[in-house]
């Protein structure tokens, strides 16, 4: 009798231990899976920000091959293709995202952005027109402004630019774009004001500084305004002012500005030297 009692008890203990092992294994597997998800999320973020754009493209392509249909990976591929300056492929990637059942209006805005970068302005306009007007975001209105610009619908462009600027805390590049729009229309005073505002928002934005010199040069004002700039930047801006002077027919002023640019640059300023040489040869001939 004693032996009959001990054997079932031993079996029961073995079953209990096996059950505990299985529970431990399940817990370990679940923890490992959770860690992998966290690690993958962190890696995705790294790929979208600091990684080489083309390496990020390859990463998301591999990830999608292993797990097709995951919209976060599809978005990552689209973003990476834009960063890698591969807009035609980005259009394909974002089109697939917008066809996904979990696509959002933000995804449709990203498709419009990719289409603009690929030069497909009409399709971009269609993509934005398909988004409800209640979806009011900075990027949506910035793209709307760019499309209005392309159609030379200045009234709409100004309205969209103004709305976009009111929806962001970093409006410098949009102010610069708006200023360039004014510059192409021949509204040099308006452009000058917008470029000045852009620089006030971001003192490192050299494009706005260069555009400001162009806007002033178009008005016959060739002095470089007082701006935060390096010596190299000042030389480049003097060269831009010289080009603006030549465009207006002020040849002697252009030559003087090229010489000043060459003297100002801390190293050899090849571009300004070529401009001056070409000008002098042309005058001689």
Automatic annotation (TrEMBL):
The record's annotation in InterPro entries points to: TPR-like_helical_dom_sf, TPR_rpt
**Ranges that cross the membrane:** none
Query: Which keywords does UniProt give here?
Result: TPR repeat
**TPR repeats mapped onto the chain:** 235-268
What is the protein name given in its UniProt record? Beta-barrel assembly-enhancing protease
Q: What is the lineage of its organism?
A: Bacteria, Pseudomonadati, Pseudomonadota, Alphaproteobacteria, Rhodobacterales
């Amino acid at each position: 009798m004693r032996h009959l009692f001990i054997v079932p008890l031993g079996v029961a203990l073995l079953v209990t231990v096996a059950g505990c092992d299985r529970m431990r294994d399940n817990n370990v597997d679940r923890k490992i899976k959770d860690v992998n998800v966290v690690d993958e999320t962190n890696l995705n973020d790294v790929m979208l920000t600091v990684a080489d754009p083309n390496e990020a493209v390859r990463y998301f392509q591999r990830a999608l091959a292993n797990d097709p249909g995951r919209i976060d990976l599809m978005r990552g591929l689209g973003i990476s293709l834009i960063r890698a300056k591969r807009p035609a492929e980005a259009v394909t990637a974002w089109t697939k995202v917008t066809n996904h059942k979990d696509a959002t209006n933000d995804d449709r805005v990203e498709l419009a952005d990719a289409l603009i970068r690929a030069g497909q302005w009409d399709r971009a306009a269609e993509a934005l027109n398909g988004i409800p007007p209640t979806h009011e975001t900075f990027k949506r209105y910035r793209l709307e402004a760019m499309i209005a610009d392309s159609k030379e619908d200045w009234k709409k462009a100004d309205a969209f630019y103004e709305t976009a600027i009111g929806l962001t805390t970093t409006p410098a590049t949009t102010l610069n774009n708006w200023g360039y729009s004014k510059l192409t229309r021949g509204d040099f005073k308006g452009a000058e004001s917008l470029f000045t505002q852009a620089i006030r928002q971001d003192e490192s934005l050299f494009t706005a500084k260069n555009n400001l010199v162009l806007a002033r040069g178009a008005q016959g004002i060739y002095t470089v305004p007082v701006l935060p700039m390096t010596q190299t930047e000042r030389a480049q801006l003097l060269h831009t002012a010289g080009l603006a002077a030549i465009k207006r027919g002020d040849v002697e002023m252009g030559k003087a500005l090229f010489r000043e640019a060459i003297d100002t640059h801390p190293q050899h300023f090849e571009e300004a030297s070529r401009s001056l040489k070409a000008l002098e040869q042309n005058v001689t001939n």
